[in-house]
Amino acid sequence: MPTIPIPNASFEVPPVDPGQLAAPYGFYADPAVQVYHPTADDMAGNVPEESLPDGQQVLGLVEGAFSNATIRLDAVLEPNTTYTLECDTGVPKTLGGGWVHVQFFCAGGVLFEAGIGHDGIGADDVGQVPAGIGVFTHQTLTRTTDGVGSSPLLGEQLGIRIIGEGLWLDNLKLSALARPVADPVRFTVAVRPPGLTAVRPEPGTHERARGTRILLTADNQHTGAGPFVFDRWDGPVESHHSRVTRLMVREPAPSQQSTGSSSRPNGT
Fold first, then answer.
1. Do residues 79 and 153 lie in contact, with contact meaning Cβ atoms separated by under 8 Å?
2. Is residue 123 a contact partner of residue 115, using CB atoms and an 8 Å limit?
3. Strand, coil or helix: 153
4. pTM (predicted TM-score)
5. Residue ranges of the domains in the chain?
6. How far apart, in whole angstroms, are the C-alpha atoms of residue 63 and residue 83?
């Protein structure tokens, strides 16, 4: 599966001596987030390197200090793509408890996240995954995007954010697998008069897999020209309901488009 490079994904830079800390290269991080070279007493095994998922160092989130680290990636959110984010998390024996949120995000917001903790400590608001003391547990997060025009987040720069305390993280990996769209259906959404009714999907040309059910919605707007209310849908979809679905079985003719019309209420 094609991978998206994550600089310093194993937190080996800068290299430090056993038991020492340093700021993680490539990440915007709070002082409480440091790369750390575990000692033999930190892990379940006698030799720390044998217990670490990759390399000799980890990203350590200090106990009792809510902290975060963020890195921007040289990639943007693509349509029809399955993203898989992997990491290994563990709670050092010397701490005995911790939690972390691992977020995959772009400029417009968080795409998905997982809460990882030990014995019900923190992170349970986004679906907690247990992390064992003295060992590392492999975690996997997955999200698949829809087609062209399905979200305003498409094309935004991607990033990873790590928030938590009292826990170690190592070996970040991100892959992106493009999904083939067999015989896609393209359709156009417009508003009349332009800009006077908020519709979703947004005005423009969109692409969906054949057989996808599309939800068209329209919201009333109040502009400087006065209030406007939704009137009807015209084109391949004809309805006076502001929320309507259509099963995309065939592509509309080039001259057809789904148009949401708006008008001023009587007396205004």
1. no
2. yes
3. coil
4. 0.68
5. 21-178, 185-263
6. 31
Using CA atoms, how far apart are residues 213 and 262, in angstroms rounded to an integer?
A: 24
The amino acid at residue 123 is: A
Q: Which CATH number is 21-178's, of 2.60.120.260, 2.102.10.10, 2.30.30.230, 3.20.20.140?
A: 2.60.120.260
Provide the token pair at 5: 């490079």
Strand residues in 45-184 grouped as ranges (E): 58-61, 67-76, 81-90, 99-106, 109-117, 128-130, 136-144, 157-165, 167-178
Using alpha carbons, select from 84, 72, 101, 111 the residue that is nearest to residue 169: 101
Q: Based on the number of CB atoms within 10 Å of its own CB, is 247 exposed (0-12), middle (13-18) or buried (19 or more)?
A: exposed
- Which tens digits make up the pLDDT trace of 118-163? 654 444 445 556 776 777 888 888 888 887 777 888 889 999 999 8
Tokens for 63, please give them.
């106990």
